[in-house]
User: Fold this.
Amino acid sequence: MRGFVCLCLDLTGDDIERAVRDGFRDPETLKRYTACFMGPCQGKSCFDTVLELLAELTGTDAAALAVPTRRAPVHPVRLGVLAGLDEAEEP
Assistant:
């Protein structure tokens, strides 16, 4: 399967197919193996495409697949903010 399914991480359909052949057949383990959904877009561009491809490769319905954990993007926080010292300086 040619073509990119995750532009952030340069994952192709072949990468997903290989992961499924290696036994990573559910979205959560596929995410951990290939890092799909973990690029800068946090899965916003590839989420549906990867799940549809996974469903096709495993012979299941895309709606029946368990949705992997989605987390908000992380940004650095100074320790002073966590300690309550720099509250006025943070946006």
User: Anything to note?
Assistant: The first helix runs from residue 13 to 21. The radius of gyration is 17 Å.
